[in-house]
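Students often ask why inverse folding is considered easier than folding. One informal answer: many sequences map to the same fold, so there is more than one right answer. In these notes we will look at a single instance of the problem. The structure comes first.
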């Protein structure tokens, strides 16, 4: 069915161009056209003489002039419009859908079933509902944990990652901040600071403080030390601006 649709669409698309070229691809013989015109003038001239519209002397002069034009036209070379150029163009137009089909055949999959938008939107909505349910269960579990539970901090980190993956920036930052309150970790502080920078579009005083704390608590050979130092310099420069 798809091939029939492709063929019909190709024919409909190329039909106007092909029809125009075909109409223009007619023979144009200037010599024959001129001779036919002058011969018709001679016939008309004889008819005017018969009905008395012109005098015999005028008829003779006009006849000589027309005959002279016939002689001139008879010497003109016959010129024909070259059909080969237009034939090539028409063939090229016919090859366009064939090339398109060949290209589609190499990478397309006509046997695949249709993928309507509505079922995909419904699947995304169901996935969001499941994610919301899981996050709600995680929040409920965290609310019931003791502050001394070693799993509490890890739970807030996981909650922040889940919220960040769904684009909930503020919820992710709140969860990570609670994890930092339980135990400060330089890597998590940097992740929180970066999330704040993305959300606020600049390095705020709070983000700058997180970078400084992370740098102070990080080992000397931390691979991200230089990048954080650049962030701090950028933040200090922004803070100095009015």
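Output (designed amino acids):
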């Amino acid at each position: 069915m798809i091939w029939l649709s492709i063929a019909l669409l190709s024919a409909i698309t190329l039909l106007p161009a092909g029809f125009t070229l075909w109409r223009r691809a007619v023979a144009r013989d200037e010599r024959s056209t001129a001779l036919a015109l002058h011969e018709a003038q001679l016939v008309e001239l004889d008819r005017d003489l018969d009905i008395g519209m012109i005098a015999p002397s005028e008829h003779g002069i006009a006849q000589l002039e027309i005959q002279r034009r016939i002689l001139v036209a008879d010497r003109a070379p016959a010129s024909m419009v070259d059909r080969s150029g237009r034939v090539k163009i028409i063939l090229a137009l016919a090859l366009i859908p064939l090339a398109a089909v060949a290209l589609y055949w190499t990478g397309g999959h006509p046997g695949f079933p249709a993928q309507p938008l509505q079922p995909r939107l419904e699947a995304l909505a169901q996935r969001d509902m499941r994610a919301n349910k899981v996050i709600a269960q995680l929040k409920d579990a965290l609310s019931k944990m003791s502050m001394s539970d070693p799993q509490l901090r890890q739970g807030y980190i996981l909650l922040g990652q889940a919220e960040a993956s769904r684009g909930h920036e503020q919820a992710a930052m709140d969860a990570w901040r609670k994890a930092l309150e339980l135990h400060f970790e330089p890597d998590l502080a940097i992740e929180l600071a970066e999330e704040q920078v993305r959300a606020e579009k600049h390095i705020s005083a709070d983000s700058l403080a997180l970078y400084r704390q992370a740098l102070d608590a990080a080992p000397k050979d931390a691979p991200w030390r230089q990048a954080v130092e650049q962030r701090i310099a950028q933040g200090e420069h922004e803070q100095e601006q009015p």
